[in-house]
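Lab meeting tomorrow. Please check the following:
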Amino acid sequence: MVSIATTTAGSLPRTPALIAANAARPVAADGFTLGTSPEVEALTGKAVADVVERQRQAGITLLGDGEFGKAMSSAVDYGAWWSYSFQRANGLTLSTTDPFTEPAKRSTPGHIVLTSFADRRDWTRFADAYAESIDLGTGATAFPTTTGPLSYRGQEAVAADIRHLKAALRPGEQGFLTAVSPGSAARIGNEYYATEREHLFAWADVLNEEYKAIVDAGLVLQIDDPSLAESWDQINPEPSVADYQEFIQVRVDALNHALEGLPKEQLRLHLCWGSWHGPHTTDIPIADILPVVLGAKVGSLSFEAANARHEHEWTVWREVDIPEELVLVPGVVGHATNVVEHPELVAQRILRYVEAVGPERVIASTDCGLGGRVHRDIAWAKLASLGEGARLAGARLHEH
């Protein structure tokens, strides 16, 4: 029977014990770096072993650590994939401004700036809905500003991530770890570098060390870069597509700089429109950003393909010039609904992409990380449906 590989987009539900342990970690003098202890490390290692086994039982074949090394201190946290990087870089100072409440900024043609989080066009269009019924999940994350030369100091932390995951893998299994992209990391304030480009490429140099450690360990590296699609909504007024493509091209250039010399087959880029639960009516179509995104020097591309705002875009892959050997990693179960997708629907979604590039170049996945976005029991039911849907898709291909 034809086998369809499966994976996740990274974050999986933390156990209450792990969340409590992270919440109890001491905060360093800088205001945002968390301390650790042998007890926390042992708890994390066991939790990673358990989450890998649960993925295995659900039918997931490319296994992750659930992002358990990236501390969450509450059950709802949409930013752990990003904020962990603040603890692994020198040159940062805790900011006195909050990106959710800072004054709104306005762009002009040819000059794009990101506005505040609360000034996103989707959020302002549906202000009453957000205020009344949606938890934005901002948590208590402290956002820093770059105030000095950036350098990497996360060697021990990434080594622990690698150690925990490799200990949980069986011989012959492949695992992956996530790391933030330069474009997403650089969305904090900058008071040191002369230009935005310099700030981006400084982050690229910092993150190259983390990327290289993961790849050298024989693991797949997933680079999380929602900024490529999500930033469109954080620009007021709405820019032209051409201006936006120019804006994200610099971010792809910085990413390619960070990935220089690393083997493409171990590199996966994760693209999404933001994992908060909202209408997303101001999301940019994937067709408008693919001409730039496909220039990233990676071997596979993970993207949202299951939620109601983007599922229809599977037809784009019939029309676009897909780079030779690029592996597609479409989300076939979603993070934005509590409804658990039927395995037959999952199989149908998988086969759409198989028709475009063949079964060996499709890895079925989740839209975004499920940890902190849906209840843990629902998350695991979705992964079981993902595994069963992949089995059904493989059986359909075998029949034909």
User: Anything to note?
Assistant: The first strand starts at residue 5 and ends at 6. The chain has a mean pLDDT of 92. The radius of gyration is 20 Å.
